[in-house]
Amino acid sequence: MTHQGETGWIAAHRGVGHESANEVRGREAKVLTHYAGRRRWSVSVASLIFGLALWEIVWALGLLPPTLLPSIQDVVRAGIDVAVQGFQGVTLGQDVAISLLRVGEGFLLAAVIGVPSGLLIGTSGTMESIVDPYVQFLRPLPPLGYYTLLIVWFGIGELSKIALLFLTAVPIIIVSSAAGVRAIDRDLLLATSSLGLKGRQMFRFVVFPASLPSIFIGLRLALGATFGSLVAAELIASDSGLGWLVLTAGDYIRTNIVLAGVIVIGLIAIALDRLMVVLERRLVPWAGR
């Protein structure tokens, strides 16, 4: 065997060895990740069980009157009754649908306007100078602080609620989208530019994909803020929705319905957040890599 042949044979076998080692390390990492995920899940379930047990113990010992802390069974029955028979003529499913529709309208409108605006601000200093003062003014304001003004302008109906949700979400989305553009590695832009990518091609194949992880972070935060603002707005001025359900039940001292409504609100918020995480993993698989 010639020296060149020996070198090729050794290199080939080294490559196989290295590849096998990488595969082993990959499998080990997957196993460790799997067990770490199962451990976190087990801890979360144990924490939930402890909280429910503590609730039941406090109720059984009579440390709080039933009007303040009903039993878990009473809350479950109240939730089922509201879902089947309704409360004040509105079922739980209708309240959930109304609240989700409001969230969807306000959030989608904010996303359609906020993402392009943020990308434009991130690529244009002039646009940043024009739009940024309004974004920085709106961003720290508590949404309910100007909700009364929106009611005066648009009335107590749906338009004022959609406007509130839009103004809650759009600054968050604009800021995160612009930050995604600014965080792109300049060396990457120079390298792709040297390959002939310019203008729209640069935006389509480099800027937009690289900004997507930051955009999704903003969308996730904005969705949570939007849902929270909606529930608070329904507490103030509404005749339907989950916030209205909790407020009205509280007026009648129906604490079991109040707790059932609060639990439903929390579960929906968790579900919406998980939905955004799944969408990000599907649409932006390169995020965090």
> What order do the helices and strands follow?
HHHHHHHHHH
Supply the helix-strand structural class: mainly alpha
Main sheet attributes: strand count, strand direction, barrel closure: none
Helix content: over 70%
Query: Would you identify the CATH architecture of the largest domain?
Result: Orthogonal Bundle
Specify Rg, calculated over alpha carbons.
26 Å
Q: Which residues form runs of ≥5 with pLDDT under 50? A: 3-18
Please report the distance between the alpha carbons of the first and last residues. Answer: 44 Å
Write up what this structure looks like.
There is one protein chain. This protein has 289 residues and is mostly helical. It has two domains: 1-63; 72-283, MetI-like (MetI-like fold). The protein has ten helices and no strands.
Short description:
The chain is built from ten helices and no strands. It has 289 residues and is mainly α. The model is unreliable at 3-18 (pLDDT under 50).
Summarize the helices and strands and which ones pair or pack.
Elements: H1 3-60, H2 72-84, H3 92-123, H4 125-138, H5 147-154, H6 158-182, H7 186-194, H8 199-236, H9 242-251, H10 255-283
Q: Which key terms come to mind for this protein?
A:
mainly alpha; MetI-like fold; 10 helices; 82% helix
